[in-house]
Specification:
Blueprint lengths: L1 H8 L31 H11 L8 E5 L5 H9 L4 E6 L2 H10 L5 E5 L12 E7 L8 H11 E14 L6 H10 L3 E7 L1 H22 L5 H8 L5 H8 L2 E9 L4
Parallel strand pairs: 1-2, 1-4, 2-3, 4-5
Antiparallel strand pairs: 5-7, 6-7
Helix pairs in contact: 1-4, 2-3, 7-8
Length: 252
C-alpha cells in the first residue's frame, strides 16, 4: 500500500529508486557516473554491484519488486540483457515505470512475488532489491523464483532484517538454503549501506523538501532512512543487518 501511494502521489521522474543505496568495497571496480546532482548514484550502485555478480548481457532478466523502475532502466540500458521485465505488485508503480522508462528491451508488468505470471524455466536471472522483507511468504516467493529460473539460472538478492524479529537474517539464510539452490555468495553489506545513507543524506533531505508535501515530510524521512531515523540507528547499533546474496539453480 505504501509503494502504491508513493507512485500515485509522487509521480516525479527524478525519484527513480527507493533502496537505501550502496558504497562499494575497495576491492570492487569503481563505477564512473555522470556528474549529475539529480542522479541517485548510491541507489544506482546498489543495482550495479548486485547485477554484475553474474553475466547479464544477452540474458532474460526478471526483477521482482521493480518499484519506480530506476534499477530496471539502468541494467536494461547499460548491461545489455536480451530482455528485462520489471514486475511490481503496485499497478501505479508499473504505470509510472512504463511511462518514464522506455527502452526496446525493457517492459513492466503487474504481478505478485508469490505467484509470478511467467512460465517455468523461462528466466536466466532474477533480481530482488530490498523487497522480500515485505512479502507475506518468503518461502512462496523463493519457490516461484526457482520455478521460473532456467537450470543454471541465478537469483541476485539484497535485503535487510531486524535481528529482534523472529524472522531475522538467520531465518532468511535458512529460507534460501531450503530452496535447494546453491548459495554462491553471501555478504554482510550493512556498513556499505550505512556509508551510503550518510553520504546521500543532504541530497535526500533536499529531495524530500522538494517533492514531498510538508505534512508528510517527517514520516517520509523515517521511511527514506535519513541519518537519525530509526532505520539508520538500527543499522548503526547492529540490531538490523543488510545482506547481499547470489544463488544458482542447479543445472539438472
Amino acid at each position: 500500500m505504501t509503494y502504491e501511494l508513493l507512485a500515485k502521489k509522487i509521480p516525479d521522474s527524478g525519484w527513480n529508486f527507493m533502496n537505501y543505496g550502496y558504497i562499494p568495497n575497495g576491492s570492487e571496480s569503481p563505477l564512473v557516473l555522470a556528474d549529475d546532482p539529480t542522479l541517485q548514484r548510491h541507489s544506482l550502485q546498489m543495482y550495479h554491484y548486485l547485477a554484475t555478480k553474474t553475466t547479464i548481457e544477452g540474458k532474460k532478466v526478471l526483477e521482482v519488486g521493480s518499484g519506480r523502475g530506476g534499477g530496471a532502466r539502468y541494467i536494461a540500458g547499460n548491461l545489455r540483457p536480451a530482455s528485462y521485465t520489471g514486475m511490481d505488485l503496485a499497478q501505479s508503480a508499473v504505470d509510472l515505470s512504463t511511462r518514464i522508462h522506455v527502452l526496446p528491451n525493457l517492459k513492466f508488468i503487474q504481478g505478485s512475488a508469490e505467484a509470478i505470471p511467467l512460465e517455468d524455466n523461462s528466466i536466466d536471472v532474477v533480481i530482488n532489491v530490498e523487497s522480500c522483507h515485505a512479502y507475506g511468504s518468503v518461502e512462496k516467493f523463493l519457490s516461484e523464483v526457482k520455478r521460473v529460473l532456467k537450470p543454471g539460472g541465478s537469483l541476485l538478492l539484497v535485503d535487510f532484517r531486524n535481528e529482534k524479529n523472529v524472522e531475522n537474517m538467520s531465518t532468511l539464510k535458512q529460507q534460501l538454503r531450503n530452496t535447494g539452490m546453491e548459495v554462491l555468495n553471501e555478504e554482510n553489506i550493512t556498513e556499505n549501506v550505512i556509508k551510503s545513507i550518510e553520504a546521500e543524506d543532504e541530497s535526500k533531505r533536499e529531495r524530500i523538501r522538494t517533492l514531498i508535501p510538508h505534512k508528510w515530510q517527517n514520516l517520509f524521512s523515517e521511511f527514506a532512512g535519513v541519518v537519525g531515523s530509526q532505520f539508520y540507528l538500527t543499522l548503526k547499533n547492529g540490531t538490523r543487518l543488510y545482506y547481499r546474496f547470489q544463488l544458482r539453480k542447479k543445472a539438472s
